[in-house]
Design a protein that fits this description.
Elements (H helix, E strand, L loop, with lengths): L1 H27 L12 E5 L18 E6 L13 E8 L2 E15 L2 E7 L11 E2 L3 E10 L2 H9 L1 H39 L32
Antiparallel strand pairs: 1-2, 2-7, 3-4, 3-7, 4-5, 5-6
């Protein structure tokens, strides 16, 4: 029983650490472009199936992908077939999009890119210039990880994965403290009930000090002339 409680406590602590690390990553590691960035890489949630397919580098809605951030100068080395993340206009709003480069253009020394989702029938409407490009897909994905990430960022995800584990952790600590106090009190009571037992000893006869002998009287004889 004690062992199972200890294992449960470790699991709760581990879960709290993981969830807090995710929240710290999402809230504090923001770059100017507004995309989470740590050590030059970003983690993005895939929201559509525009890149769904059978190729090794395809991904679909609900996946988590890792993108290597690029500077405008680094975009000059991009080639056809690579998958990039860029700023796009989706449903009238500026948002991230990740599609494959189908053609590289170089008009008057200014590079631009035509992109297309592997699962889409037509190419994207506008060409993307270097300043639109944010990063290059690294080829690493976590299947279903995006769904988990989205849940963690939601109100209920915060409640279930952070508030409840923290509450359970504090209750566990209170339980251990109460148990330790109870054990200390029981030990104090037991020690208070034990009284010292006198050990009987055999009396030792002490001899009286020796009495000094009185000096004997010596008879004296007087000579008469």
């Amino acid at each position: 029983m004690k062992k199972s409680f200890a294992i449960t406590g470790r699991i709760i602590v581990g879960l709290i650490i993981v969830v807090m690390a995710v929240f710290i990553f999402l809230t504090l590691s923001q770059r100017d472009a507004g995309m989470p960035n740590i050590f030059g890489y970003s983690v993005l949630t895939v929201e559509t199936d525009s890149m769904k397919g059978d190729a090794k580098d395809n991904f679909q809605a609900g996946d988590l992908i890792i993108v290597k951030n690029l500077s405008p100068e680094q975009t000059l080395t991009l080639t056809t077939g690579q998958i990039i993340t860029f700023w796009d206009i989706i449903d009238g709003q500026r948002a991230f999009n990740t599609h494959r480069i189908t053609q590289v253009h170089n008009d008057s020394g200014i590079p631009s890119f035509t992109t297309k989702g592997d699962n889409n029938s037509v190419v994207d409407t506008d060409r993307k210039i270097a300043n639109d490009v944010i990063g290059l897909y690294s080829g690493t994905k976590i299947v279903g990880g995006g769904t988990v990430m989205t849940f963690l960022q939601s109100k209920w995800g915060f409640f279930y994965c952070l508030v409840i584990p923290l509450l359970l952790f504090f209750l566990w600590q209170i339980y251990k403290l109460t148990k330790a106090i109870g054990a200390y009190r029981r030990l104090a009571i037991v020690e208070g009930e034990v009284k010292p037992v006198a050990t009987p000893t055999t009396p030792v006869e002490v001899a009286p000090p020796p009495v000094a002998a009185e000096p004997e009287e010596v008879a004296t004889v007087e000579n008469s002339e």
